[in-house]
Amino acid sequence: MSRVELETVKRDKLFSDIFKYLPPTSTIAIIGKMRSGKTTFAKLFAEYIINYYESQGDSVFYMIYSPEVLEDIELLEIELNTLSKDINIIIFDDLSFIVSGRNKQINNFLNLITRIAHITQSDYNYIFFIGHYSRSISPFLRASNSVILTSISHPEIASLKELFTLSSLYDYLDYYTENPHRYIYLVKYHTIERIIDFTLEDMPKPKKKRDIMRDGSLTDLLLDRAF
């Protein structure tokens, strides 16, 4: 079985490679331990997509949601319907619970995501899920258009083989272990699996002006809009 070689690429080149294979409504799952670059990767990729569409004159709705908003799925649906634009880029940050895909709250959330094009009334919706590793992998994550792994340990391989080939996982484990101070990512999109090395210089913080963080209850926001 051939080895999956480590690649060093510029981040925008990787984003371009992934983006050209994403359908207009897509889900991107990013899984890994804390402080492994999950949110940074998502924000930078979102920024790449924003720049692509804004350069063509399209309006973009961009929002980062914390787990608290999922306490009321109905209000979340109202907000998405009200605020959405031609292009929608939505990051659900730290959704560790979704990896296991259990309980009613998760089912309601997944149902919302499957109806996202109808809710936003747009054919262009890019949905990012960020979560920690779990021993149980949700079928929903297996169906994601792209999966990015930002960390790995040997005990995790048994579950992660549902998302990646074993050869890629073991090669990724070797490279990740040998390079503890670098961002080493295993990236899957289309039928392609790649192990990517980003230096710290290639992974700067995203532009803060892009970030609109919605956390806590949505009630106040929606009441303000009603008057």
Termini separation comes to: 64 Å
CATH topology: Rossmann fold
The helix-and-strand class reads: alpha/beta
Radius of gyration equals 18 Å
Tally of helical runs: 9
CATH class: Alpha Beta
Q: How many structural units, i.e. domains?
A: 1
Q: Give the DSSP E fraction (strand runs of 2 or more residues).
A: 15-25%
- The stretches of 5 or more residues where confidence is low (pLDDT under 50) are 215-227
User: H/E element string?
Assistant: EHEHEHEHHEHEHHEEEH
- How would a textbook summarize the main sheet? 9 strands, mixed
CATH superfamily: P-loop containing nucleotide triphosphate hydrolases
Helix percent reads 25-40%
Globally, the shape reads globular
Strand order of the largest sheet: 1-8-7-6-2-5-4-3-9
CATH architecture: 3-Layer(aba) Sandwich
What's the overall average pLDDT, rounded? 81
Tag the structure with descriptive keywords.
Rossmann fold, nine-stranded mixed sheet, 227 residues, globular, alpha/beta, disordered C terminus
Q: Care to describe what's here?
A:
The chain has helices at residues 11-19, 38-54, 73-83, 104-114, 116-120, 139-142, 157-160, 166-178, 219-226; strands at 6-8, 25-31, 60-65, 87-92, 124-131, 146-149, 183-189, 192-198, 213-214. It has 227 residues and is an alpha/beta fold. The relative contact order is 0.22. The chain has a 9-stranded mixed beta sheet, sandwiched between helices. A hairpin with a 2-residue loop joins β7 and β8 (192-198). It has a single domain, classed as Rossmann fold. Mean pLDDT is 81; it is low at 215-227. The longest helix has 17 residues, at 38-54.
